[in-house]
Amino acid sequence: MQWARRWSRRALRWVAALLMLVVLAGAAIAAALLVTPMQTVTVAGQVIQVGATAPSLSWSGPGEIDLFGQSLPTDLRFTGPVRPRLQLSQITINSELTTLIEGHGHASPQTVLGARLADGWKHYFAWETAVVGAGTVLLVGAVAGWRRLPLKSTLKLLAAGLVVAEAINVGAIMATTYTAPSLLRQVHSLNDLVGSETQLPHIHPTGKPLRRIQAVVIGDSTAAGAGLAPVTGASNTDRACGRSADSYAADLSATNGWRVLNLACDGATISNGLLGPQQHGGRLLPPQLAVAERAKNASVVIVSVGADDLNWAAMVRYCAITPHCNDRATAAYFQQQLASFSKNYLDLLSRLAALPSHPQVIINRYYDPFGTEPGCLSQAGLTTPSLQTLTSRLQTLNAVLAKGAVQFRFSSPQPDFTGHQLCTSQPYVQGLSAAAPFHPTVLGQLAIALADQAALNQPGALRPGQTGA
Predict the structure, then answer these.
(1) Among 283, 24, 69, 276, which Cα is nearest to 165's?
(2) Is the per-residue pLDDT at 464 higher than 60?
C-alpha cells in the first residue's frame, strides 16, 4: 500500500509537471505568434508582408489581408487554426502594378506572386518555431528559478519543455503549414485573394482625344455639385448627373483659368460609374475613367468617391428613424460595405496610377456635415448617439481613402467645414428641405476647391499643362 501511495504521488507530480509544461508551451506559442516579425516578399516592385492570423477555434477558415487599414477575409480557405495574414505594405507605381492587382494579361507577376507568398509563409513559420523555442526556455527557466531547482533538474525541465512546446506547435499547425503553401501558389493576383463583388471591365477609351483639357474631375454627387445651379448649356447627361456651374471643378477652372472636365455623376460608385458603366437617368454612361483617359494632356485628376459605395444615404435614413443606429446588424453591414469598397478602391487606385499621362491624382476625403450637437437635425430624428455613429463611420471611410492615397503617393486633402455644419448660421451644406440635403452649398464647394488648390500647390505637384511622363 505504501508503494502504491508513493507511485500515485509520483504520477500526480508528473501529471502536474506535464500540465505546467503544456500551459507554458501554450503561452510561448501565443507570444510567438504575436512577436514573430512578418516576412517581406517583393513582387514586381511591390512589398508584401507575410505573417499569421491569431489562432482560431475552428479547424478551417479564411486568412486575412490588411488593405488600407481594413482586415479583410481572403477568398481562399485554409486548413488549421492558424492561417496566413498578408499586408500590402509598399506600392511602387510601375507597368506591372495593375497586372499584379487584377491578374489580367500574361505578365511575369502572375507566375511568381503565389510562389513568393508561399516562400514567405514558410520563412515565417521557421522564425515562429525558433521564437517558440526561445520563449519556452525563458518561461521554463523562470519557473525553475522560482522553484530553485538544481541545475540537473533545470536542464531536464528545459529539455522536456522544448519537446512539449515544439510538439504542440508543430502538431497544431501541421495541416496549416503543409496545405497553405500549395494554396498560396495558386494565387495569380491580389484580387485572387480578396475577390471582387463585380468583375470590373478593361477600360478602352473611345472617341477623339480631348487635348485641350487640363484637369479632370471624376466621382459622385459631391463632385457633380448636386442641388446647385446647372452648368450653362447643360446636356442631357449633365442634367441627369446633376453637374453644376457651382461645383468645385468649376471653381478651380474659374480661379486658375483651366479647362476642367467634370465627369462626376449622382450615385456613381467605383464599379458603376468610375471603372464600369453607370445606368443613370435612363442613359447608359461610359466609365468616367474611360472618358478621362481621352484627356491625354490633363496633368491633374481629382476624385470624390466612397459615399455611394457604402450606401451612405441609406445609413443616414436609418439613423434618423432609430435612436441608436450602432446595433450589430448595421455595424456588420457597414463593415461589409467597407470591405467591398476597399477591394474596388485598390482597383481604382491602380488604374489611376497606370494612366499614360501620369497626372497628379487627388483623392478627396469627405467633409463633416453634422457637427457634434443635433440642433436642427433633431427634427429629422437624428440624436447625439446617432450623429456619433455616423461621424465615426465617416471618419473610418476617410481613413481608408487617406491610407490608400498615401500608399499610392497621391494627395488626400480634407475639406474643413468646422463651424459651418448644417445647423450653424452659415452652413456649407444644404438643408433638410433642399434639393440635395447634406451636399455642399456654393460655399461648401468653394471650401473643397480651396483644399484641392492647397494640394496642387504642394512642392513637386504638377501644374496643368505639365506632364508627369
Answers:
(1) 24
(2) no
